[in-house]
């Protein structure tokens, strides 16, 4: 096997040498935790936590009750983990307002994935943009159940006109984790596109967010 120096480096050393992107999920969590528990090294403890929750996304969006049976994790650690998730959402919310979404679609995806991570019901978000495709504002316009959200195109139009928006980006999540759009998703998208066209407002995309995946209507050629 080829020797790799990063395999024997501690997370902090590895981060300083190669940047945070070089760390695995286990190493990132271990760096955050700093210590393990009696008889359990921090890297092993981090691995056990990720195995228990299934992913960083699930861990960061879990409620306090989910940590009750994990030795070594108290209210303080839970609060810190919640703060990390919220800081991530606020970071992307700030970044999206500073970016031209036409030239940086990955920023949109990152923002929406962070914003909708852990939601247990469908949330429909609309991002309103000016004629240079810069973000004016964004809104969680509709919320629904585990498998459905009722969307009203006229309300989207009303908000777009109120903000003098020239374009919009639509997005909603699938709490089931599967991002593939449903027939209902296609139907409401066509309705919104048709309604917006009558007032010369462009629908740039509709993004469906799952667990670790995202489907873009624009990329699929559906818009």
UniProtKB/TrEMBL annotation:
* Domain named MPN: residues: 101-223
InterPro entries in the record: MPN (IPR037518), RadC_JAB (IPR025657), RuvA_2-like (IPR010994), UPF0758 (IPR001405), UPF0758_CS (IPR020891), UPF0758_N (IPR046778), UPF0758_YicR (IPR022820)
Sorted alphabetically, the Gene Ontology BP terms of this entry are: proteolysis
Q: Which molecular-function annotation in GO is an example for this chain?
A: metal ion binding
Q: Which domain of life is it from?
A: Bacteria
Report keywords, A-Z: Hydrolase, Metal-binding, Metalloprotease, Protease, Zinc
Signal: is it a keyword of this entry? no
Q: Which Gene3D superfamilies match?
A: Cytidine Deaminase, domain 2
Homology family: Belongs to the UPF0758 family. YicR subfamily.
Its name, as the record gives it, is UPF0758 protein EBL_c39110
The protein's organism comes out as: Shimwellia blattae (strain ATCC 29907 / DSM 4481 / JCM 1650 / NBRC 105725 / CDC 9005-74)
């Amino acid at each position: 096997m080829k020797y790799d120096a990063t395999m024997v480096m501690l997370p902090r050393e590895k981060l300083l040498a190669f940047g945070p992107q070089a760390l695995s999920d286990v190493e990132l969590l271990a760096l955050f935790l700093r210590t393990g528990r009696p008889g359990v090294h921090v890297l092993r403890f981090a691995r056990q936590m990720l195995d228990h929750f299934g992913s960083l996304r699930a861990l960061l969006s879990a409620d306090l009750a989910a940590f009750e049976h994990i030795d070594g994790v108290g209210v303080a650690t839970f609060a810190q983990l919640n703060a990390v998730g919220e800081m991530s959402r606020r970071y992307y919310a700030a970044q999206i307002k500073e970016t031209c979404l036409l030239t940086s679609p990955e920023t949109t995806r990152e923002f929406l994935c962070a914003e909708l991570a852990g939601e247990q019901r469908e949330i429909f978000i609309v991002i309103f943009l000016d004629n240079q495709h810069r973000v004016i504002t964004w809104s969680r316009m509709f919320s629904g159940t585990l498998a459905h959200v009722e969307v009203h195109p006229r309300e989207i139009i009303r908000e777009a006109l109120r903000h003098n928006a020239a374009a919009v980006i639509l997005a909603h999540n699938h709490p089931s984790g599967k991002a593939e759009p449903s027939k209902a998703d296609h139907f409401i998208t066509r309705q919104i596109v048709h309604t917006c066209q009558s007032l010369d407002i462009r629908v740039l995309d509709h993004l469906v967010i799952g667990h670790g995946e995202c489907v873009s209507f624009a990329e699929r050629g559906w818009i």
